[in-house]
Design brief:
Elements: E1 2-8, E2 11-12, E3 21-27, E4 34-41, H1 50-55, E5 61-63, H2 69-77, E6 81-83, H3 91-100
Parallel strand pairs: 1-5, 5-6
Antiparallel strand pairs: 1-2, 1-3, 3-4
Length: 109
């Protein structure tokens, strides 16, 4: 499983479209342990193309704070699960909370 998390300073960036980087957290399908975390800076000219850029990376899930409804729909049309309302935390913690079912919505969806 590959989870994408928008970040600023290696923490969740509350607004999906205003992040400076994305953490791509790869989890083991057997035990849900973290296999790798890769931080990718998004070129500024790509800011309007974030969904396409992430879809090219074959992500399975996006964990975000706030995301526009249109962007959520675009991901869902491509069978990518969208989780919004996530609290500010490290990508590793958010990914582990997601797979354990303990990721709480902070109301900023």
């Amino acid at each position: 499983m590959l989870i994408a998390i928008p970040c600023v300073k290696e923490q969740l960036c509350v607004h999906f479209g205003l992040c400076e980087q994305f953490a791509l957290v790869r989890l083991d399908d057997q035990d849900n342990g973290i296999l790798s975390v890769a931080l990718h800076y998004l070129p500024r000219q790509m800011s309007g193309l974030i969904p396409e850029w992430l879809m090219d990376k074959n992500i399975d899930v996006v964990v975000a704070g706030v995301m526009e409804v249109v962007t959520q729909s675009l991901f869902r049309e491509h069978n990518i699960k969208v989780i919004t309302g996530a609290p500010v935390d490290s990508p590793e913690n958010l990914a582990l909370k997601y797979v354990k079912g303990s990721l709480q919505n902070n109301g900023n969806a």
